[in-house]
Write a structure and sequence with these properties.
The complex is a heterodimer of chains A (about 475) and B (about 350). Helices cover about 20% and strands about 25% of the residues of chain A. Chain A is of the alpha+beta class. In chain A, the strands form 8 sheets. In chain A, strands 3, 11, 20, 21, 22 and 23 form a 6-stranded antiparallel beta sheet that branches. In chain A, strands 4-5-18-14 form a 4-stranded mixed beta sheet. Chain A has a 3-stranded antiparallel beta sheet with strand order 6-7-12. Chain A starts with 7 loop residues before the first strand and ends with a helix. Chain B has 2 domains: about 200 residues, no CATH class; about 90 residues, no CATH class. Classes of the chains: A alpha+beta (about 475), B alpha+beta (about 350).
Amino acid sequence: MPHYPNPFDFVPFPSAPILRTEEQFDALGEKLSGYLELEIKALTPVHVVGRVEGGAAEHQSFFFRQGDKPCIPASSIRGCLRAFTEALTAGWVSQATPKYPKEYRGRHVGFKTFETDVPKQSRRRRTSPPAVDPAFNPGASPGELDVASYLFGTVVEGKQAEHEEQSHKSKVLVEDAYLPLEAITFDKVWWAPDIGGRAFMGGAKPSASNWWYFEPAEVWKRNLSDKNGCPMLDRFGRKQRVAEFIGDHFRGRKFYYHQDPAACVRMYHPDSKFWTYSVKKPFHPVQLESMLQDTVTQPFRLYLDRIPRPLFLLLLRVLLLQPGATMRHKLGYAKAYGYGSIEFALKSARLRTVSFGIPKTLKPWKLVVGSWNEAALAKSELTDLIDRNALAWLARILGWPHEGIIFLYPRYKAQEFQQVVRYGQFSQKLTEQGMTARSPMMVTSQEARAVAEALWDLKRPIEFQLYQEKAEGWDIIERRSP
Amino acid sequence: MYNDRLYADGVHSVLLVEWELLCKTPLVIRNGHQIAYADSAPTKKTRYHNLQLKWKDKTNQEHEVAALHYGYEICDGKLSSYHFVPPSSIRGALRSWSIHHFVLPALYPALNPAPKDDADGAAAHKACVRQGLAQRDTGLELISSLFGLAADESEEELPSNAGRLQIETVKFTGAGLQPVDVSGVSMASFDGPDNVRRVMPVRNPLDRITHASREGGLHRFLEVTHGETFKVHLRIINPLDCDLALLGLWVRELNDGMLRIGALSSIGRGRMEVQQQTYELWRRTNAPKLQGCALLGDETDGSRPDDILSGLWKCHVIPPETLLEFTDYLKEFTGGSIDASLS
């Protein structure tokens, strides 16, 4: 039986970031300043978390407000645009948790995002390579910066005193987008699944001991031990061993697929019988006060401060994703369940070209957004600033319309996330496929895929990409293009 | 060559400017302090219950929030605190905008003396000051004359002067207790300033790879709610024609949002609207005439009977709409140009 694809996917990292000096960016062309007046249209209900109230059976999350007005905060809008720009232009990873240390009975394999992780004390000493190529660490290349940092600014943390030149003020200023009160409401079908008393369901748990967030690297034979550290034995007195799938590098930058939230969350409801909940981990939904589908925010402004023309044309493409109109942005909470699909609409623009001396008056400008094809990118002088593979992946993940595809997390049950792969099973399944299990077993990406294929009937969510490609609707997703 | 003896001929005229600024977007003025607030939400998954803002350092159970700038005054023998926009914030914004538009980037080292232990920086500073002040059209004279020019003790041979522009601000005049809004929930505030409506936004950058909150990224700050107003008084001693043009440009750019006050302009904070503006030029009878004197209003005795100059000096009320008519004088002073080829 086919399964539903996972709600998120990764835009792979390129071999190196695209970097320039500030002077090179400055020299890209005539500079523009001024502002765009925009609106945000909700394509699916949008929720930005404000006040949260709890009850015994469920929580209520109210839409974020500023003063007494519902509001999509500027920081959310900026984050949405910047994350897209970083992926599209092979930029730095501007926001990342720096380390994930090994934890007793928690995280088996510690790692750091941009550095090699050498565990201080561990029975299984594993030196984890940086999960992301350090070249993508902001400030890694002194004197240079990526497109997103040039546009949205950067503060290289802890280095301001020594490398003041590495901090850059934002050239894109975004104001809050307010909503009329009548644009938000609670609706009984707008909720997100959650588990009572636990961390939020669907919360990110990146682990280097599976091939979900990580590119495959090796397979370990892991001895299970009890809470006292003693080996766990099977009924024949043999040590219990499992296969552990170790990764080395993050697959890429995460983005969520668009989908219909009502259809999605219905599958997480206990009544669907698809997803089951235990007494220890009870179903505890969160009702979401959301911006109604097809409503728009009040106009808000996005300011530009001396942006060279090619990067202005890039920013327009990032904002409006047109004229192909095959992609849409996501913003706010519960993206994994289909909430937060939006589009920006340009209402007007008041701009001026920048020259030294007395600044000109801002004048209305008529803007035409360029396409993503090569000729249009070349005409906009963007050929060298776009990662084509990232664009292809963004078009797949952020493809619009969603065509009714439902995306669900793998369940915590047999054959899915709960399934343990005993080492004996692992060895046997590989042998059946003409492969040989070794310990440790270093694997290439092709070998890892073959391993996951061999184990498919036992456990499906092992190798992320294989899981996605075997999911229902992948043929549609794969055909999407910018 | 620039002459730093700005008052060699004495003070012969003063331009008094009053602006009332309306915060079109929230305004963030930080003072570097982190204060505490308490949230009695019963579980980790709920938030904003019985919120209390405490104007003191946080304890274990409390959260930190970056404070909004405030000062102290003595009222009826009691010390009390109040929020206000420091004049330095206004001055900094105006100076920074002016520098970016009128001073060549190569001369930026002239604008900030180098640290004492930085010999190379000090040499660059000296060279840039000399080069920048040798000719009027570098823009450095305009900045130095209005905002002042600082020289280190070891740089006695360099010109230095206080600026002709002085700025004062008036505290916010909110009456009664003004709670802090936290996403539609009122947070009670004790023992702190409360003379303006405030908001406490939360920012939480998302990790690009996991889409979870970035560890250590969660932070909160206080800001002035949009819609609040405050007054600014500017005084320019011995004003020049170009100063009037600059004032007109500042007002235009403030209203357009191209010149912002305070922090976090990246998330749209600090856009202002100049709601009310008055310009009075007070002149000694034998003061040098402005070149654009024909653009000034009629001479009057002014509207400040209590002022020390009242009855001694004459006053011209300058209509705000005439300020930009002085632009050619600014162009002449700085060598800047207006490009009329707008698309």
